[in-house]
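SAMPLE LOG
Freezer: B-3
Tube label: C17
Construct: single chain, 131 aa
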Amino acid sequence: MRTLLLILALPALMCAQVYLEAFGQTLPFTLAAGSHSHWDPAVAVEQAGALPAGGPVMTLYPNPARTAIVITVQGKGKVDLFTVAGKKVRSLEFSGGKTSLTADNLVSGIYFARLSMKGRAALTTRFLVVR
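STRUCTURE (predicted):
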């Protein structure tokens, strides 16, 4: 099962790398055959100087999500949800606080949530939708 998941996830990870590099938000990463990897939902890709001091400004849970996703944003900003292919599926405006959105219209797979503050990408995190 783990091997099948890796075989299916590898092309998605490669698409994700291309997407994030296109937005200038990450350094290249590789996943070599036979290497061990783990899913860490706390890992976020940051753009230097864009995040306010004091730590993360967006949290997203549960990860992996089945029916609903809770997004919490500290401060005013916009959250865009993207597929690994780069297609925008949702856009939400925040002025602080949290909101819950249903994941019923999202197909199983890897997604990215990009927080923009003051017109600049501040934080990008990934999450998984599982049915």
